[in-house]
Amino acid sequence: INSQMPQTEGFVDDCESVLNAIVEGIRAAAASKDWFGGMRDCIRDLKRLQGLKYKQPPGVRAELCGIMYKCITTEEEEVDQILLKSMAQVTCRMLQSKPGKELLDLSLPWRPLYNLIDRLCFGKSRLQAMGVCRNLPHWLVTLARRARKYFPEGSNREIMAELRPLFCPQDMSIFKAQGCMSMLLNRQEEGAFGYVAEMMGLWSWVTSYMDWDMMMLNVLSSLCKHTYISKGPEWESMTRDIFSRVLHIVDLPVGPSRIHIYDAREGSLPAGDGYPRFSLSVFVTKGSRTRVVHNVRKCAKLIVYLLPPGGGLAWQLLAKLMNSVESFMHPSNHGYWTHRLSDLLCALCENFYKRVSTERLKGIEPCVLKTDVEEFSRIMLPLALQGLYSKSASASLQSCTALKFLGMLDASNALPPLLDQVYQALTTLTEVHQTTSAMQALAAVVFPMVKSENFSAGAEHLPALMQLTLDGIDSNDLHKTWTTLRLYTVLLSGLPLIPITDDAPGERDAARHEVIRQVTDTFADWAFKFLDQAFAFIVNQNYPHAEEEHAKSDIEGRTSEMMFHCTLEVLFMQLGDKLFDRALRKVANFCFTNLLTHQTEHLGILLTCLCRVDPAAAVRMFLPTCLRILLVSPNLSPSPRRYVKTPASTAPKREGSS
């Protein structure tokens, strides 16, 4: 990124000198315990340097992480909580690494961090004596999650020995023990699987409490991901018990009973109870996910890594589970279970795609077979197609995401049924409510569809789909317009609108090349039809009354922004030179032959998109005509906006009224 910036000259040298100064400053501040002066200034400078995306050397990162970890976990009372949070933030960023990358040469003790979290989140007093800085527990938990891979060998044994006495069913300390176990246990340490049987036994101690289930799912799903290859038979022996827990968490109704396992507060301990001081979910959740979504996604992750290659018990139970939830995904049903079941469907497809991609990239054996992928697609596809037209917008979106992953995994089996439904939704006159959902799904699967290695017949569908979706640009239906423009933005970002005129190279299939050439021949016709639809949309924009000028709906603003800032800009960028010149003349003819007094903002954005692609050509086309119009105009000053007169605005005002 930095190499492509205009000010890249001398950037690396400047960053190296600044980094050296920061390292020296942190060393000196840590040695002299200068928390409020040198340490605070160095942390601020380090944050700014990280914002520039400068890649720090591994040795420097390891040294800084060791120093700041020691400063964070110190028992000095002089270190204020705001500085603790800042140091935890920069340390988390330096400890973060992509999967497969080599770890830093670093060793961090677990006990000081455990003592710090225990002191802040699990105080001895019943009520909290002093406030805790906002988001400080979150960053300390994130630091523990990033640092646990650097704990010394044997740390898991020490952590479990420390926490086992706290697992008392008659005392609230059991929640502290479970939270710290989920947070600190190193999943990658040899022998970590040995604690799974103990955790499965502990799981049954507490029922109908969401945070308890959440932390157990968090640690078990992570352990399964790291040990499913070497401990596959052992995990298979626990499959039935795990699936029974999944059914408990999904909370499907049994018979006529309407009692839910979790209450409306999602099973959280209120802060007023004093112990623990914060909801237990702070130990596992990330971002803005709710506890329901987090639990469902961890269930999906655990199920995916339980699936053995070649079939087995887990595959049979997964098929039964999906068959049992099929009626809840019907488009006419919407209620308590819709959100969590649609999230379960999406998370299953996402985690299975990640597992298959990782195994193929790293060459892991035994890996998921092609027949396993086809079986997974057969199980998931009916639910994804059924949830596509759900009354819930979130369920429809999750189904589109699931179809995207299924399209990348098994395009030859997943895409033909979807395309049949898309064609039906785009051509029907009696079920027009399906059009928007069909175009959302099409935007999700358009890239897997056009890749020849995934779906050989995908390119042949492209011209018909591009023509059928043009009617989606409708000034009377802004939501459908926004969906259509989003589809075009996604499609055009990877599809140059340049006709192919050359013959097929020697190593290419001549028949396949001829099909692609015929597809590209339709691009010019489609591009100008799209401009006609865009012009019609601009002309039909009604000018608001004075009292409505500042009350435009959010969806109208998003539609205009998407249309002019994204779709048209990408369209002009992807046009070839000849097509761009024709489009430029078409836009100029539209601007100079129509009376567009109320569409000045739309025209300005339209011309901005042209100028971003070829400023010289746009100036040569528009500037002479604009100057000629200004020179012959009798009134050069712009006239004020005129609003439609109403009886209320023309009525005489009373004396003393303003």
Q: Can you characterise this structure?
A:
The structure is a single chain. This protein is mainly alpha-helical and 658 residues long. Helices cover 62% and strands 0% of the residues. The chain contains 28 helices and no strands. The chain has helices spanning 11-32, 35-51, 58-72, 81-95, 111-121, 136-147, 155-163, 173-184, 196-203, 210-227, 232-236, 239-250, 291-306, 313-325, 338-362, 370-387, 393-409, 411-427, 434-450, 458-468, 478-492, 510-520, 523-539, 554-574, 577-593, 600-613, 615-632, 647-650. Helix 2 (35-51) packs parallel to helix 4 and helix 18 packs antiparallel against helix 19. The two termini are 58 Å apart.
Index terms:
mainly alpha, globular, single chain
**Rough outline:** globular
| Coarse structural class | mainly alpha
Q: What would the average pLDDT be, to the nearest integer?
A: 82
Overall radius of gyration: 31 Å
Proportion in β-strands: under 5%
Give the helix level as a range of percent: 55-70%
The SSE string, one letter per element, is HHHHHHHHHHHHHHHHHHHHHHHHHHHH
In whole angstroms, how far apart are the ends?
Answer: 58 Å
> What is the β-strand count?
0
The biggest beta sheet is recorded as: none
Q: Could you list the spans in which at least 5 consecutive residues all have pLDDT below 50?
A: 267-275, 544-552, 641-658
Helix count from the secondary structure assignment: 28
Q: What's this entry about, in short?
A:
With about 650 residues, the chain is mainly α.
Question: Which SSEs are present, and which pair or pack?
Answer:
Layout: H1 11-32, H2 35-51, H3 58-72, H4 81-95, H5 111-121, H6 136-147, H7 155-163, H8 173-184, H9 196-203, H10 210-227, H11 232-236, H12 239-250, H13 291-306, H14 313-325, H15 338-362, H16 370-387, H17 393-409, H18 411-427, H19 434-450, H20 458-468, H21 478-492, H22 510-520, H23 523-539, H24 554-574, H25 577-593, H26 600-613, H27 615-632, H28 647-650
